[in-house]
Design a protein that fits this description.
Layout: E1 3-6, H1 16-31, E2 35-38, H2 50-63, H3 86-98, E3 102-105, H4 109-117, H5 138-145, E4 151-154, E5 161-165, E6 169-173, E7 181-184, H6 192-202, E8 207-211, H7 218-227, E9 234-238, E10 240-242, H8 258-263, H9 268-279, H10 290-293, E11 310-312, H11 315-321
Parallel strand pairs: 1-2, 8-9, 10-11
Antiparallel strand pairs: 3-4, 4-7, 5-6
The chain binds glutamic acid.
Length: 322
Amino acid sequence: MRRGRFAPTPSGLLHIGNAFAAVASWLQMRQANGQFALRVEDIDTARSRADLAQKQLDDLRWLGIDWDEGPDVGGRHAPYVQSERMTLYEAALERLEQADMLYPCYCSRSELARIASAPHGLASEGGAYPGLCRHLSEEERQAKGAHKTPALRFKMAGQPVTFRDGWAGEVTFAGEAVSDFVVKRADGMFSYQLAVTVDDAAMGITDVLRGADLLDSTPRQLALYEALGLTAPSFAHVPLILGANGERLSKRDRSITLASLRDAGVAPERLIGVMGFAAGWIDRPEPVSVRELIPSFRAVRQREGEPQGRLALSDSLWRMLT
Ligand code: GLU
């Protein structure tokens, strides 16, 4: 049985880019007669709010999306809220520690920023972590640890990573592009990379379909699956919908949230029709329900002249929403 999910972080209201990923993931599972789960990714407590999580669920329901498992309906992999799943992340961390895949990192944000701005510093390496703390001696660790709680970083192999993306095709990341990453922050918070991998595996997710902004997380997550001895799901990254100004949408951009469309009296079927047409699932941008789109769903190849991982809506399509 195929299993997909939508896993929003409740740090803002859902915008139409988030909706596109949610709709695509839902359609993929409904077409495959699979199961669809909803998970609230609220481990970053400083950014997450319970009232926003509730609003996100309401927005998804307004779109016509339903879920077989989730925070409000339960399911055999409950809880579906990350802040209630800490013991699972703790257990994974222990396994990684036992396998010698982690090391303490004492670098502060300001130190890393200073290196990045130095000539031939981090910036020339694409912002990658240069491995400063990876080879510290035990004495150096003790000296640094006397003043500071470290973060924990995962040791990447430094090799190129290639995988087949269900939407973007074959993707390769150079070894230098995927440097050692944080799995637990100095303040004790688990990282997104660790939590999402543990949860997708524990929940038996077979198909991860999400926005192209997370494409470069995939090589890190693949490394975690391997280190934890878990089977990786297949990955697909749908293009990000560009705003009318040609810029990426953000959850903070109120003008194109689902809530603002609803308040302006735009019917969900109209938005679904615009998205379905832009994705090439239907021939005309006419109002349609998500259910009616189930048979037409398919991955869409990058179109000529469009930036990688981006889906620009034409002015006339934007006008249908505003
Ligand atoms: N929680 C992440 C976000 O809202 C998405 C996680 C995922 O789909 O892997 O950006």
